[in-house]
Protein: Class I SAM-dependent methyltransferase
Amino acid sequence: MTNTASPEDFLRAFHAQRPAVTAEAFGGGRAPDGRSSYELLCDRVAGSRRVLDLGCGDGLLLELLARDDGPRLAGVDLSPQSLAAARRRPLPAGTRLVAVRAQELPFADGEFDACVSHLALMLMGEVEQVAAEIARVLVPGGTLACVVGGGPVGGEAFERFGRLLKRAVDEAPASSRIPPLGDRRTRSRAGLEEILRPVGFGPVHWQTVPIDLGGPVARVWDAVSGFYELGPLDTATVARLREDFFADVADLTTPEGTVPCGFTVHLAAARLR
Ligand SMILES: C[S@@+](CC[C@H](N)C(=O)[O-])C[C@H]1O[C@@H](n2cnc3c(N)ncnc32)[C@H](O)[C@@H]1O
Structure:
């Protein structure tokens, strides 16, 4: 795939080719309590009757939310292909899946009790407008809960992959780099509060959780190679990166044939006053 001018066009083009990439990469990740980051996020809105997923992708989070005794669900995403994959999941009748920007939600004021977003809010531009839309569609007292990406746990395959990827991207032509995505403030508690307070949210509750993605090296590669940065790289560069990664993590491989791989996520939640 080639790089395109706007971040949203880039995301649409990337997910047209890989509609379910995030759930495939991170759905199998496990927190210390054995649950995935998707399941941890579900807990934050347990009992909410009407839940909106912002940047729902192929709908894994919606499917997990649906287990919670029949909430009314809706999901929005930029990618029609990801939404098509979400429609193939066993979701409750009446679940609304809409291809729109989170900056322009097609819902009435106060229509939801909770809004969730898994590894998506952090990619959104004009984030003040997204925050205003979330506040508008939530009821007073409603909850926003999201998972945003942290970094490598350290000393394992994810960190090594990051170094190799940076080298590959630095060596690639400028046209093979992704456009800047999202607003960095979403990745810290103080930054997220700066975005949410003006639209009426209270303090942000923030928890950092390590997610274990360790396993056979081929599976770990499948997870890390879902990163957006690989999208515009040519096939030969990706093949070389894969080769370098396998060689680089050889010394980390256990006698059982698995490599440790972990990254942290931040679980953030705030209530609308
Ligand atoms: C990393 S994926 C995460 C997908 C899903 N939440 C998951 O974790 O499996 C980010 C998703 O956010 C969507 N997205 C990014 N910016 C968006 C925006 N402004 N409005 C709606 N969706 C957006 C992308 O299309 C993509 O599907």
The first helix runs from residue 7 to 17. The radius of gyration is 19 Å. Residues 208 and 266 are 4 Å apart (CA to CA).
